[in-house]
Write a structure and sequence with these properties.
single chain; 297 residues; Rossmann fold; 7-stranded parallel beta sheet; two-stranded parallel sheet; 13 strands; binds NADP nicotinamide-adenine-dinucleotide phosphate
C-alpha cells in the first residue's frame, strides 16, 4: 500500500490533474464538497466540507493521511471581496481546521497559494519579495500561508498563477471561456494590462508530486515560462485552437469595474523550484497544444 494522501478541493480545476498525477503512486483520498458524477480514477472519494471542523477531524482520524494536499479554496476573487466572511471561513478558518486535525502527527501539508499575495506593482515576484495583497482573496491566502508556516507541521507552500488545464469534471476556466466564445463567433474583450505567467495544471501537479518528497519547509513559486498579458494569452489560445483572433479586443482593467482590485504587473519567478526540485517550466504553445489534444497531465 502506498502513502495515504488526502486531497482537499480534489474536484476543482487543479484538483483533477493532481488526482490523476498522484494516483499511480499513492493511496488517494479525493475529497470535495460534493462528489462529482464522473468518478473514474481509482481512489477513495469522500464528501468533505473543510469549513466543518468535526468532519475534517473525522476524515483525518479515519484515514490518517501522511500528507494533505490542500487545494480547496474560494477562488472567485470578486466573491471573496463581496463576502469576506465566506472567504475567511473557507480560505483561512478551514485551513486552521486541517492543521488542528493533524496536530500531534507527522502529517505534512502542501498548500497552493497565489501571486495575489503581491500588489502587482513590480512583478514577476520571487519568494523573497514582500507580500502586500490588494484584495481580500490575496489577504486570505496570505493569512492561510502564515498560519501554516507557524503551525509546527511539516509544510510546503507553492505559489502559482493563472491556472489552465483540461478537466472532465470542472467546466469553467479562462481558456474554456475564450474557446467557447470564439467558437460561437462571439466578440470578447480581454484585459491587456494584467501580466503573469499562465500555468498548465498538469505541470503544476508534477511539481506538487515532487514537493511531496522534499524534506524542507519552503515557499516555492511555480508558473509557466512565458510572461504575457491576458490579451496576448487569449490570442495564443485562438492561434493554437485555430479560432478567429480578430474577435478579441483589448480592454483596460479599470474599465471592467470589478469588485476586487487586481494586481497588474504580477507573475512568479520560478528559478528556486527549478533548482530545488529539478522541475521544468513550459511554454504556452506546448501546453495549449496538449490541452487541445485532450491531455490532462
Ligand atoms: N485558478 C488560479 O488561477 C489559481 C492561481 C493561483 C492559486 N490558485 C490556488 O490553487 C488552488 C486550486 O485552484 P483551482 O483553480 O483548482 O480552483 P477551483 O477550480 O475553484 O477549485 C477549488 C475547489 O475547492 C472547493 N472548495 C471550496 N470551498 C470548499 C470547502 N469549504 N470544502 C471543500 N471544498 C471546497 C471547490 O468546490 P466548489 O466548486 O463546490 O465550491 C472547488 O472544487 C486554490 O487554493 C487556489 O487558491 C489558483
Amino acid at each position: 500500500m502506498g502513502k495515504q494522501i488526502l486531497i482537499t478541493g480534489a474536484f476543482g480545476q487543479l484538483g483533477e490533474s493532481t488526482l490523476l498525477e498522484l494516483q499511480p503512486y499513492f493511496d488517494i483520498i479525493a475529497s470535495g464538497k460534493k462528489i462529482p458524477k464522473i468518478t473514474n480514477y481509482p481512489c477513495k472519494y469522500v464528501e468533505l466540507d473543510i469549513t466543518s471542523k468535526n468532519n475534517v477531524c473525522k476524515i483525518v482520524e479515519t484515514y490518517s493521511p501522511e500528507i494533505v494536499v490542500h487545494l480547496a479554496a474560494i477562488t472567485n476573487v470578486d466573491l471573496c471581496e463581496s463576502n469576506k466572511e465566506l472567504a475567511w471561513n473557507n480560505n483561512v478558518k478551514a485551513t486552521e481546521n486541517i492543521l488542528d486535525s493533524i496536530r500531534g502527527t507527522k502529517c505534512k501539508i502542501i498548500f497552493i497559494s497565489t501571486d495575489y499575495v503581491f500588489d502587482g506593482f513590480s512583478g514577476p515576484y520571487s519568494e523573497n519579495d514582500q507580500p502586500n495583497p490588494i484584495n481580500y482573496y490575496g489577504k486570505t491566502k496570505l493569512a492561510a500561508e502564515n498560519i501554516i508556516r507557524g503551525s509546527g507541521q511539516p509544510w510546503v507552500i507553492i505559489r502559482t498563477n493563472v491556472l489552465y488545464g483540461n478537466s472532465f469534471i470542472n467546466k469553467a476556466s479562462f481558456v474554456k471561456w475564450v474557446i467557447d466564445s470564439l467558437s460561437h463567433k462571439k466578440k470578447i474583450s480581454v484585459v491587456d494590462d494584467q501580466f503573469g505567467n499562465p500555468t498548465w495544471t498538469g505541470a503544476l501537479s508534477e511539481a506538487i508530486k515532487l514537493s511531496m518528497i522534499m524534506n524542507v519547509n519552503e515557499i516555492l513559486n511555480y508558473g509557466g515560462s512565458e510572461f504575457i498579458s491576458r490579451f496576448e494569452f487569449a490570442k495564443k489560445i485562438a492561434k493554437i485552437f485555430g479560432l478567429n483572433s480578430s474577435l478579441i479586443s483589448p480592454i483596460k482593467t479599470r474599465d471592467l469595474n470589478q469588485i476586487a482590485k487586481r494586481p497588474l504587473k504580477s507573475g512568479l519567478v520560478t528559478s528556486k523550484i527549478e533548482n530545488i526540485l529539478g522541475v521544468r517550466t513550459f511554454g504556452l504553445d506546448y501546453c495549449l497544444s496538449k490541452m487541445r489534444d485532450g491531455i490532462i497531465t
